[in-house]
Amino acid sequence: MRQPGADALGFRADGGGVGVRGLGPDDDADGATGQAGVPAPRHGDKDRDRGRPGDQPPDDEPGMSQPRLPPGQYVQASMPVLHYGPVPACHPQAWDLRVYGATEAGRERRWTWDGFRALPRAEIIADFHCVTKFTILGLTWLGVPAAEILRAVPPAAAATHVMVWADFGYGANLPLDAFAAPETTLATQRDGKELTPEQGYPVRLVVPSRYGWKNVKWVRAIEYMIGDRRGFWEERGYHNNADPWREQRYSYQELPGEGPAL
Hints:
The structure is a single chain. This protein is mainly beta. The chain has one domain (10-23, 67-76, 90-253): Alpha-Beta Complex (Sulfite Oxidase, Chain A, domain 2), CATH 3.90.420. The protein is built from 4 helices and 12 strands, in the order βαβββαββαββαββββ. It has helices spanning 46-50, 113-117, 146-152, 176-180; strands spanning 10-12, 74-75, 96-101, 109-112, 122-129, 134-145, 161-166, 171-175, 185-190, 193-194, 204-206, 219-225. The protein is globular, with a radius of gyration of 18 Å. The protein starts with 9 loop residues before the first strand and ends in a 37-residue tail after the last strand. Mean pLDDT is 79; it is low at 1-62.
């Protein structure tokens, strides 16, 4: 695996600070300070900002633009393994990533494992918010920014959403702007180590601006869509948008226009 170098962008997406590393002349640093629902940087006491189990940082401290935790969340020290269905076996020689649907060129594209690993990569540090109310602080992810996929395979002008597909037919939908956000990443490593099969090896989506079920493991395809369509959990009672800062957990909370009809 190629480590991030001069062509890699690194920034925090967890509200604990922002740092940009190794930007090239054609890189766009706009949005590295907390777009797409990611908290803006905090400037309080460093140790306090890291959080302690069960702590909810106050939202009225001077200089604090937003609390570290979304509403209803608590800090947990380690990441449990949660997923639906079996863990798929991966054979790198047979693995590919397919991009299809409403592409600008009207045709799909596929990357082999070697081709995908050759794409530009970035490192982010992001908090992970599970809909079951636990938050893991400061996970480090390395992978291909979703924006690189959009750059290589531009969507049609009419495209508004993506469906990210995994093995066994699991899918999660996202607005195109959330998928395009600079912190959204197709990760291959977590905390300096290659993903394990249970963590989503070889590729999982990381979307810090959404609850964890949108962070699809075992990614195999990205479908560009003209209009929205619910994914696996969105069809089974979970909120279509899944914004943790708005506590969008369940479909019964949806307001008109926040999702397709169930």
